[in-house]
Amino acid sequence: MRTLVLGGDGFCGWPSALHLSAHGHDVTVVDNFVRRRTDEELGVRSLTPIRSLAERVQAWREVTGRDIAVVELDLAHDYDRLVDLLATVRPDAIVHFAEQRAAPYSMKSPAHKRYTIDNNLNGTHNLLAAVVQLGLDTHVVHLGTMGVYGYESVPVDLPEGYLTVSYVDRVGDTHSRDILYPTQPGSVYHLTKSLDQLLFQFYCRNDGVRITDLHQGIVWGTQTEETALDERLINRFDYDGDYGTVLNRFLVQAAIGYPLTVHGTGGQTRAFINIRDTVRCIRLAVESASDVSGRVRVMNQVTETHRVADLADLIATTTGATVHRLPNPRAEADANDLAVRNDRLLGLGLDPTRLATGLLGESVDIAQKYADRVDVARIPCTSFWNEGRRVAYEQHT
Ligand code: NAD
Ligand code: USQ
């Protein structure tokens, strides 16, 4: 299959591009390298020493004999070049990772909010408009997020994208229909993923574009089978207060003796998936295009749920770290229950990797190996959801 990987230089995109290439896909990576420039803006660098994309694909060629093509392009602003690229490659599948993905970054300032909306919505819309303009029968696989469902405790296992509702019409007859699960985004970033869903619904209905939206949980870990083949292929590992996600942050904090930064009570329950399962899910989604017709296929890309406080306790017990409860910089529920259906990916053959399987040890080793690259000043989360959160945090620290 000819497969485009948009955002293929990023944390999920790079290992997915390698995994697809290893399984015989003819891969083209598209990226505008904004993520690397954002590191410079924030004064941080990946815990792991990531190479340039040119070095990465050269190393992949040397190690495996496989070619990955690279195109530098801004999905949100280079529309004509995007159309030319799609017309030339005529991909069977397009995997779309190319969005600003950090909730704290999206809440830092009006400029960051506006950038996130502009980048994510224009990028997604440009892609859909270009596919329709060229009349391509390409399967678009998008990385969405579990956060679109919101984190209210609800008395159901979260379904995969749609909620069946029943209603009584004006003559008293009862009907039922599926609607997109009502969204409750918790940040401007999560808001863009909620709005992406409407773009998909429209282009699927209006133009018959075949779309899979993967509602992914928080990704942890760093290496995959393919990135571990050579140090030049190593994947990104974010630990800073904007891009670092909770479990990977805790692992780095434990490695350098920094108290684990639990926001609030730690009662927040979230969905998780290891990066090794992310890349497998992407391939399962891409290679099951024949299942997609009629409406947008939504699959919950998660393998387990955990409370933040439980993760902190687990890592404290494993490593001897201490736990620090901080005022929560985010406006979010102190505690929630969460149970999630993931039948579709299980049905396609996903064999979940769980925290308990020993992979935590691999991540602890990576965090320890590169601990001298950590800049401690970049660990605190200094993006506040509103003024009240800022004041409470600053009074505490
Ligand atoms: P990342 O920031 O590491 O990678 C995103 C890549 O897209 C970067 O290389 C960036 O340069 C590129 N990009 C961004 N805007 C672009 C544009 N306009 N044109 C071209 N390239 C652009 O993020 P990630 O962690 O790999 O996440 C990838 C996708 O998966 C995102 O859409 C994110 O919302 C989703 N996701 C991530 C996680 C997670 O825990 N990391 C969880 C759920 C969903
Ligand atoms: N948290 C802490 N301490 C920290 C960092 C985070 O307690 O040091 C808490 C947060 O307050 C939040 C939870 O941990 O309650 C998760 O935070 P996170 O930064 O790990 O994850 P989130 O902001 O939700 O975003 C990440 C990815 C995003 C993806 C999302 C999946 O950055 O791209 O969409 O996970 S989900 O959460 O399922 O929506």
What tags apply to this protein structure?
binds nicotinamide-adenine-dinucleotide, globular, 14 strands, alpha/beta, Rossmann fold, single chain, 3-stranded mixed β-sheet, 38% helix, binds sulfoquinovose-uridine-C1,5'-diphosphate, 397 residues
Using the coordinates shown, work out and report the CATH topology. Rossmann fold
List bound small molecules.
nicotinamide-adenine-dinucleotide, sulfoquinovose-uridine-C1,5'-diphosphate
The overall strand count is 14
Q: Which outline best applies? A: globular
The level of helicity is: 25-40%
In terms of topology, how is this protein built?
Layout lengths: L1 E5 L6 H10 L3 E6 L2 H9 L10 H12 L4 E4 L6 H11 L3 E4 L6 H4 L3 H25 L4 E7 L16 E7 L5 E7 L7 H20 L2 E7 L1 E3 L25 H10 L4 E4 L5 E6 H12 L10 E5 L2 E4 H12 L3 E4 L16 H5 L11 H11 L17 H10 L1
Parallel strand pairs: 1-2, 1-4, 2-3, 4-5, 5-8, 8-12, 9-11, 10-14
Antiparallel strand pairs: 6-7, 11-13
Helix pairs in contact: 1-9, 4-6, 6-7, 8-10, 8-12
The site of sulfoquinovose-uridine-C1,5'-diphosphate has 22 residues, from helix 8, strand 10 and strand 11.
